[in-house]
Amino acid sequence: MCVLITGASGGLGLEFAKLFAKDKNNLMLVARSADKLEEVKEQLEKDYGVTVHTFAADLSKESSADEVYAYAAREGLNVTALVNNAGFGDFGEFASCDPDKQRDMVNLNVLALMRLTRLFVPDMKSRKSGAILNLASVAAFQPGPLMSVYYASKAFVLSFSEALHVELKPYGITVTALCPGPVKTGFEKAANLKNSGLFKNLKVASPQKVAQYGYKKLKKGKAVAIQGARNKFLIFISRFAPRSLVRRIVYKIQKVR
Ligand SMILES: NC(=O)c1ccc[n+]([C@@H]2O[C@H](COP(=O)([O-])OP(=O)(O)OC[C@H]3O[C@@H](n4cnc5c(N)ncnc54)[C@H](OP(=O)(O)O)[C@@H]3O)[C@@H](O)[C@H]2O)c1
After folding, report:
1. How many CA atoms lie within 13 A of 46 on its CB side?
2. Does the beta carbon of 91 sit less than 6 angstroms from any atom of ligand 1?
3. Which of 149, 173, 199, 203 has the most CB within a 10 Å radius?
4. What gap in Å lies between CA 84 and CA 58, rounded to an integer?
5. Partners of residue 83 on adjacent β-strands
6. CA distances (Å), origin 137, targets 69, 162, 175
């Protein structure tokens, strides 16, 4: 029995790893930084007495999800829960942002998440149990001018997760889309958000709080988990506002510093 967490070298992924380890789950952790993963492994094994496997991989590369699956199979790890957490954004006008970074973002946020799910679900189905937590975002609920690719990638994650939630229920597998607002992690820097109003205009949550919330909702098997009362409210009222207004508001929130 093992929980696979992507993007576990820091931020939300690291907090998820701590929560699962605290509950005595063995782990397989994936991220690019082998050294950081080793540090996390040592710490968690020492603190919680669990076994932690690490696998350094760049999940934006096409074959990497298959390599993760092959490693898990080779080591005989029964992946009972999959946390598709690795992801990043990029702030700026679509036509000015680095096209390679945009491609890597879709490869990571969308394709790797889909491929890992596709690879691990059959084993969960044959065991008639499993849990999948996919990191979406409040960004999934509306278009995001100045972060167009990121918002679109999270819209995919939300839609995909909700669909699988229904499909996989009869097999005893839960699928949860966790939708946080801004969280204090490495995300802001990685997404070049210092010139954006996003983290200045909205409330920023701690990664511990968001991970605890996601973990609780995963255990309950919820389909969609929007973290934070303010985020829930904003998403609720945005359903009644014209889409043309919503996209202009998002543009303003992100633009104003
Ligand atoms: N923070 C927020 O405001 C926020 C809000 C809503 C949703 N989210 C979502 O939450 C998830 C976690 O983000 P975070 O906030 O924890 O950000 P973070 O602190 O930047 O952590 C991202 C994690 O993903 C890993 N990663 C990045 N690129 C990777 C790649 N190509 N291959 C494998 N691993 C990769 C990073 O490790 P390495 O650098 O070692 O690879 C790191 O462990 C993301 O999906 C993000 O979109 C974040």
Report:
1. 6
2. no
3. 173
4. 14
5. 5, 133
6. 26, 13, 15
| Whole-structure pTM value | 0.97
What spacing in Å lies between the alpha carbon of 35 and ligand 1's midpoint? 16
| Nearest atom (ligand 1) to Cα of 150 | 47
Are 179 and 159 a contacting pair, CB within 8 Å?
Answer: no
**What is the set of domains in the chain, with CATH numbers?**
2-255 (3.40.50.720)
Over residues 47-72, the pLDDT tens digits come to 999 999 999 999 999 999 999 999 99
CA–CA dist 68, 51 (Å, integer): 17
Specify the pLDDT at position 198: 87
Q: Which residues contact 79 (CB under 8 A, 6 or more apart)?
A: 2, 3, 4, 28, 72, 120, 123, 124, 130
User: Could you tell me if the CB of 10 is within 6 A of ligand 1?
Assistant: yes
- Rounded CA-CA distance 86/61 in Å is 13
Tell me if residue 150 is catalytic: yes
Set 48, 150, 151, 215: catalytic member: 150
- Cα Rg of the chain, angstroms: 18
Which residues share a beta bridge with 132?
82, 175
